[in-house]
């Protein structure tokens, strides 16, 4: 018989690579949020807020429409890859994946959601509290899979990312002027910002209580420059809606203040503010610097108002080269824009975790 291998060598040979990855500085990326970071959870709930059909995903590996609201990968996919992990982060509700996949990255995000429960009600999507419930379920599964000590180590070393808030304003606050709506409850948008900031703080405190230590709180983009908002700004000659951009910038200031407050109060917490506002605005103002040329309309269909099912598979207007466009549909960036934003966030904010 051949020489018998030591048990330790056998273990290393047979153990999944993901278990070894627990010893990486960031062994997993765990994501909460809206369509900016949803990899397909909405495919598995009864909602119209979906994108698991062509032309979505046409530039994704295999041309697959996964449920990501883009022509290809989204920002968190690129961030995962930058940390030496997998090039895509799977959706928690997708039965094609299991806990061995989720152990190195998972997203609980749901397109159409926000901080406010009333926002998730608009399109019947997963509210933030439910995303957190799924995370608790994930923790249980991970401990069964890896064993509690190793799972808890992974959970404490993982990078937690959040990205939401745009829908709270554009799909909820500004879209519903009915009595009882948020705009009637909070006539001053600043008061609504404070309401959302309070929810964000409670969420981050809960995450910390569940073991999270490295947390990236995502900011808002210049939402007044989304093609949908520009299309409806006819009086302003379809320029960016400055008032919406001011709201986004103000809210980002409050989110940044929140990170400073929590870092001072939560022992061992490393909470950073990942602000995409200026990076995206730079692309919109100077697209040629990034090899782009179209900023006011999107690639999909006419590019003026379509997203989701309105991005028809056979639309004769859909562009042939999405890399020339900042936006893929009227609300979401192209893969190329996502990659640029991800690189900016990694280099300027997340570098401390590498």
Explain this structure to me?
- The protein is α/β, with parallel strands linked by helices and 354 residues long.
- The protein is 41% helix and 6% strand.
- A five-stranded parallel sheet has the order 2-1-3-4-5, sandwiched between helices.
- α3 (75-82) crosses α14 (335-348) and α6 (128-146) packs across α7 (148-157).
- The longest helix has 24 residues, at 242-265.
- The chain is globular, with a radius of gyration of 21 Å.
- Residues 1-23 have low confidence and may be disordered.
- Belongs to the 'GDSL' lipolytic enzyme family.
- GO terms for molecular function: hydrolase activity, acting on ester bonds.
- Keywords: Signal.
Short key terms for the protein model shown above:
354 residues; globular; 14 helices; alpha/beta; disordered N terminus
Detail the topology: elements first, then pairings.
Layout lengths: L6 H8 L2 H4 L8 E5 L41 H8 L16 H4 L2 E3 L9 H6 L5 H19 L1 H10 L1 E5 L2 H8 L8 H4 L3 H21 L4 E5 L8 H6 L9 H24 L4 E5 L2 H9 L49 H14 L6
Parallel strand pairs: 1-2, 1-3, 3-4, 4-5
Helix pairs in contact: 3-14, 6-7, 10-12
């Amino acid at each position: 018989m051949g020489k018998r291998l030591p048990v330790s060598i056998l273990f290393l040979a047979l153990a999944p690579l993901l278990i070894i990855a627990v010893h990486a500085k960031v062994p997993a990326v765990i994501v909460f949020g809206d369509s900016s970071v949803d990899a397909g959870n909405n495919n598995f709930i009864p909602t119209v807020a979906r994108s698991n059909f062509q032309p979505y995903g046409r530039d994704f590996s295999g041309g697959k429409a996964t449920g990501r609201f883009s022509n290809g990968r989204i920002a968190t996919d690129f961030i995962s890859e930058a940390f030496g992990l997998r090039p895509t982060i799977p959706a928690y509700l997708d039965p094609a994946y299991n806990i061995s996949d989720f152990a190195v990255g998972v997203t609980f995000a749901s397109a159409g959601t926000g901080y406010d429960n009333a926002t998730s009600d608009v399109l019947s999507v997963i509210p933030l509290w439910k995303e957190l419930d799924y995370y608790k379920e994930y923790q249980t599964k991970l401990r069964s899979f890896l064993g509690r000590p190793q799972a808890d180590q992974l959970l404490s070393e993982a990078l937690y990312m959040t990205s939401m808030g745009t829908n709270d304003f554009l799909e909820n606050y500004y879209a519903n002027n009915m009595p009882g709506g948020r705009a009637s409850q909070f006539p001053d948008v600043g008061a609504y910002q404070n309401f959302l900031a309070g929810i964000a703080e409670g969420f981050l405190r809960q995450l910390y209580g569940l073991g999270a230590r490295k947390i990236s709180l995502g900011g808002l983009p210049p939402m007044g420059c989304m093609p949908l908002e520009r299309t409806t700004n006819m009086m302003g000659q379809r320029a960016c809606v400055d008032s919406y951009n001011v709201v986004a910038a103000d809210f980002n200031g409050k989110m940044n203040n929140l990170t400073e407050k929590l870092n001072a109060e939560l022992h061992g917490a490393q909470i950073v503010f990942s602000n995409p506002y200026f990076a995206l605005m730079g692309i919109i103002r100077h697209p040629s610097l990034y090899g782009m040329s179209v900023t006011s309309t999107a690639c999909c269909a006419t590019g003026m108002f379509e997203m989701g099912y309105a991005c028809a598979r056979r639309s004769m207007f859909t562009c042939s080269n999405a890399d020339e466009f900042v936006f893929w549909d009227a609300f979401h960036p192209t893969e190329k824009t996502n990659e640029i934003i991800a690189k900016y966030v990694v280099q300027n904010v997340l570098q401390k975790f590498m």
